[in-house]
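Repro:
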Amino acid sequence: MERFLEFDQEVSLAELNTVLAQRDSGIMILRLSKLTGTVKVRVPDGLSHRDIKRAFLPHKVKKIYEEFPIQKVPVY
């Protein structure tokens, strides 16, 4: 299943790949969304949000989205 991760601080995909290479979590990074600043990842079934957050330590995951996070734009 695919998830969208928002981090506390800006992190490069190279840094995230390095962190994931040290752990065998089964998480695969797909892309970075420049529009929302989230990272799209493929997560194995049955992996909890807590496990996903631990896989990216020392980087702190601020929020995990189930679907693409659409920001509400004010209508004028």
